[in-house]
Amino acid sequence: MKYLAVLLSSTMLAACGGGGSASPSSAVSSSASSSSTVSPASAELAKYEGVWRQDCDNHMQLTRTATATSGTTFSVTTKEEYFDNADCTGALVATGSFGQPDEAVQYTATLANASVKMPTGETIVSDVDPATSVLAVAPFTFTGSGVTSTYAFGTTFGRIEYPNGEHALIQRQALNGQTSHGALLIRNDELLALVPIGDSTTSFQVNQRYIR
């Protein structure tokens, strides 16, 4: 799993690849959580707090939970859940995580009229919220009745057995404290994790997409 290091990285600004049935595949997601307590997030950034997810990817559902720790800082926690059925229904077979928040995200002032290249190739102009993400230092771990895993050279190698006889072979890299930069944008009820195009500070492209 390769993170950009932000909600951004994982970000959510991060990029993640991984697992499938009988052979490796890829998937990712995002995150956030809600609470009965009053959030410290600023009014402009509170919309990013909570649980975000990506579409089911061949047994695996990825979620990211973003929790405000101050007006302009968030912690992000990633969780992968592997289910009996390829559409992410049925019993939970395995869970994967870093066992702690993945990254710390620091937002800066909203950037007006940024250029954003969409997955369709279209370029739009929108206000975005730039951020810097610092990843934790931690290995990825799998737990569950259908799991065997080993850790070597900074990578966790997992094998997940499903009741129908299929299996997934998955590799997840440990987090190494990397720092990265990006931005977030909510558009049409989707959370878009953006990464800079080249060295630009005003032009971005979509790295990951999440929904509630």
Please provide a written account of the structure.
The protein has no helices and 16 strands. By secondary structure, the chain is mainly beta. The protein has a five-stranded mixed β-barrel. A three-stranded antiparallel β-sheet has the order 10-11-12, with no helix packed on it. It is globular, with a radius of gyration of 17 Å. The two termini are 22 Å apart. 41% of the residues are buried.
Task: Offer a few descriptive terms.
212 residues, 5-stranded mixed barrel, mainly beta, 3-stranded antiparallel β-sheet, 16 strands
What's a quick, concise take on this entry?
With 212 residues, the protein is an all-beta fold. Helices cover 0% and strands 50% of the residues.
Percentage of residues in helical conformation: under 10%
**What is the global morphology?**
globular
Which spans of ≥5 residues are poorly predicted at pLDDT below 50?
1-11, 14-35
How confident overall, as mean pLDDT? Answer: 86
Give the helix/strand class. Answer: mainly beta
Roughly what fraction of the amino acids lie in strands? over 45%
State the assembly state of the protein chains.
single chain
Q: Report the order of strands and helices.
A: EEEEEEEEEEEEEEEE
The main sheet orders its strands as 6-7-14-15-16
Distance between the termini: 22 Å
The overall strand count is 16
**What is the makeup of the main sheet?**
5 strands, mixed, barrel
Radius of gyration: 17 Å
